[in-house]
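ok trying this again, last paste got cut off
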Amino acid sequence: MKRLLVVTLLLFVCVGIVAAEQVELVWYHCCGQVERNEIFEKWAREFEAQNPDIKINPINPAGSYNAVLTTTILAGSGPDVFWAGIAIWRFADLLLPLDDLFEQDKAVAEILPNMREAFRWDGKVIALPFGVNAHTIFYNKNLLAEAGLTMPPDWDWTTAVNMAKQLQKDTNGDGVMEQYGFTMIDRIHALTYAGNVYSEDGRRTLVDNPITIQAMQFITDFMGGKLGVVHDSTISSNNQAALLSGQLAMGNRGVFDLPIWRRQVTFDWDVTYYPRLVIDGKDYRSAWFSPEVWAIGAYTKHPEEAKRFLRFLLQKEQMLEFATLGAVIPTQPSVAVQGFLNEKQPANLKAFTDTLAWWRNGQWAHPADISFEQMTPWIELRQMAVPASTAVPEMARLAQQRIDEFWANREK
């Protein structure tokens, strides 16, 4: 009897020790899509089953995700592990370096080098990009065929403008287009035709150069109708409805739109690259990107457990499951081939993965939180009140001022 009592007591003690040693990780994920939430919840339970010493508390915050994330992190109550998009750079100095994971884990090491380097700050990798939302040009093959056109394997802006003119229709001559040829919902990609927006050390902006000036002027002229392509401001601000209805023949959309197009579109369609910009016989490429990353707050009390969870999230089983949603380009090539490029539609799906080769750090890729689009020179350029030769150097000056202030405050 005594022996049984001792064994029972020991069991209670052991259980108590295990319970006491279990740590809890708060995990913020985004952004309200039912399919994502279901997958993330399932992953939390699977990880706990494999790691009984760790409890995952998955939270999809109500309200504005970025606002909640910013508030909780700055208040010192932020999550241990969290999802982020372009807002990741707001927290660059508050994140745990993750370079060691590239050495420890094959799945992490498979992340494309340019994607990994895109999140290096102050010499350290601060986030793991598991996916990229990239834009390509979506186009209606039926409308092109009606105009006697086919999309070339690759194209430049001269070709794009000529095709757009042939695709726009004003059948009754009242000056209102029944069909528009080509429009863009933004022009921020023009900043990266020449390369990165910021220097590698984050101390300089690089936009004040002849290529960026010419790119900004060209896109401004295109969007402003000076090149003979007619635009509608409503369509330009959100071209999805016009593309789906056949009112617009060509326009830029993101990889996250693929599920919608596969589900809703009845006409023949495909995607292609952003047009090349040719200057003095040389090709320059750009596109629009936003990242999806996992990060760990440097303030976490459980860094090793958080890293273990991050490694789990990047394993092929999880990444393939996520890739089936079709709303992100996986940054691991083997996952991209198996879980993304195996879809039948669109035919030129590879355009999305090819585009990743032209990734450049954009306006968001600096903790100084710079937005060129909100600057007065940008607005004046968009309104065609000033030329790019005036606007771009002034934007560079304002951006450099913010960068200098950031470093001065950081180094106090």
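PB: full thing came through this time. The chain is about 40% helix and 15% strand.
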